Amino acid sequence: MEEPYNSDEDNEYNIIYEMDEDAENESETEEEEEEEERGEEEYIPVVNSHRVSSNIGLNSGRDSVEEGRSKRSRVEQGGGGGRETLIGDENAECSQGKECNPIEIDGLFCPICMDAWTNEGDHHICCLPCGHLYGLSCISKWLKQKRSSAKCPQCNRKCSLKDVRKLFAPRIVVVDNESQKTIRSLEVKCAFLEKKNADSSRKESEWLKREAELNHKVKQLAERTTCLEHLLGDLQSRSIISNAAENINSKFCRQGSSCSFVSEGELQVEGASLFDIDAVGQMVLLVRRLPKIGGSHVLTKLNLLPPHESEDIFFPSSMKIIKDLQISPFNRGHALCASLGKKLSVLSSESNSVILSYDLPAAAWSCSWDLNSSNHIYAGLQNGSLLAFDVRQTGSPLESRPGLTRNPIHTVRSLQSSSSSGVRTLLSASSIGICEWNFGHTEERPSLVHETADQGVCISLAYCYSSDDIVATFRPKLGMPNEMVVTQPSLSPSATIGQGVLGSNLHLKREGDKYTKSGIASARVSDIRLPKSVIIDTGSNNRPVFGIEDEGGLILQELPSFTFSQRLMSHKRLISDMKYTSNLSRGILGCLSEETLQLFSSKIS
């Protein structure tokens, strides 16, 4: 065993210990009997630790504690010998004369020997019932020496060896109230700094995202500005064009013939069925069906200027299938929709919402804006009736007129009025032919345009309001001989070939209240579908042109002779819709299939 450390104080304690040893042996028997009566457990076996000198004072607990405190004071001041050196990096700093925290010392040292306790071995940290902490070897010797009169060296509370409990903790440090306040303050500061850093990071991310969006918008606006500058330059060049330039234009448009259309490219769309063009705003509205969202319909805004931005407007589910779409000629931001859900709706492409909706007695197949009044709209129903509405009255229709039959009205067109009588005239197309309707002062039933009677089943109607040209397309009725009376032969290369049946195209010219038959030509038409058609007025120097689907492509014919003029690019799928519109400098012709929107343009003379 290691020799005990000796000093003057240690020698004094050794002498006292030897004088009292005999007295302790004489009272040993009595103490053992008292312990057996109390049913105490056996003493905890303790082996002398090199940390605790055998000369610790055992006569007086107070002296031992005072000795320990004195020793601790020396340690705090950086003095003392090798046995008073603390264990660990922090303890080594104190032994080298560095400043130590009293809180750390109180939590690391046994108050009897002032040596650091451990979490294992002889000097294991332990506690008494009163809560005071000691090294196991120190407190065991103290209690063993005192026996029945043993007390806590610090608070004098009675205890025995069996009350000693080991504590299993790597380190115990007593934190006072001030330290707790400091710790809480630091925790609050840390939490505040973390939140501040998180907010700064989030704001930085938002600003970077916003900067990227603005840069992208600036790029788009720059491209759009370039396109508008080109259009402006074209308009300016047209205003100062000379006779020589007119001769150059004559290469494209000759006197008495139609202008040639050139392709402006095609745009990929998905599930499209209807569309309309706003030539002034350079925008297209498309009705599309989205198979991934339960087949619901959306209205897609597509910009004609690069980079062709698009935006979807979702219809209410109650509208069901959209059968007709018309952009307002007065307010380009409004569109009229007729649907099988018995709804006639006005949508705003600016707010992307339905701003007005009427409940109908039957499914709507067609719709139209009034060309003479921005307040009136119309709906052709599946039961053959036609309803007129005033957008200033949202409750019910102004007028409801029954048709000549209960067959659906698949096309409605408002006619340009030249009188101030207040009568609004419309044309409608159903299977029986073309009917004229007058709304306003009279409530008469519609009248069938006689030139269209007995022509077969009317499947399409095209009207040009600037020239009052009308073309109706017919296919034979069931049981009707497949022979049509044709005043003018068709020069279309596909007039007698391809799928479908042999039908006819009838050209009418409206003059006041009368309709004059100008020409008729045979044509191969669909036997199951309702094809779309269009009349193109490209200027005063040109004859109007009639466009209709032919074998998946678009064929143009001059009116009234139906002479073949031009065939445009064929679609891979059947054409579902076609529209023509114009601005000051050019006309735009759109041709839509389920996957592709083709755009063609021509100059207006």
Annotate the secondary structure layout.
Blueprint: H1 8-26, H2 28-38, H3 61-76, H4 88-95, H5 102-106, E1 125-127, E2 133-135, H6 136-146, E3 165-166, H7 177-239, H8 243-249, E4 262-268, E5 272-278, E6 283-290, E7 296-303, E8 310-314, E9 322-327, E10 334-339, E11 343-348, E12 353-359, E13 364-369, E14 376-381, E15 386-390, E16 399-401, E17 411-414, E18 424-430, E19 433-439, E20 447-448, E21 457-464, E22 469-475, E23 501-511, E24 514-525, E25 533-536, E26 545-550, E27 553-558, E28 563-568, E29 577-582, E30 586-592, E31 596-603
Antiparallel strand pairs: 1-2, 1-3, 4-31, 5-6, 6-7, 7-8, 9-10, 10-11, 11-12, 13-14, 14-15, 15-16, 17-18, 18-19, 19-20, 21-22, 22-23, 23-24, 25-26, 26-27, 27-28, 29-30, 30-31
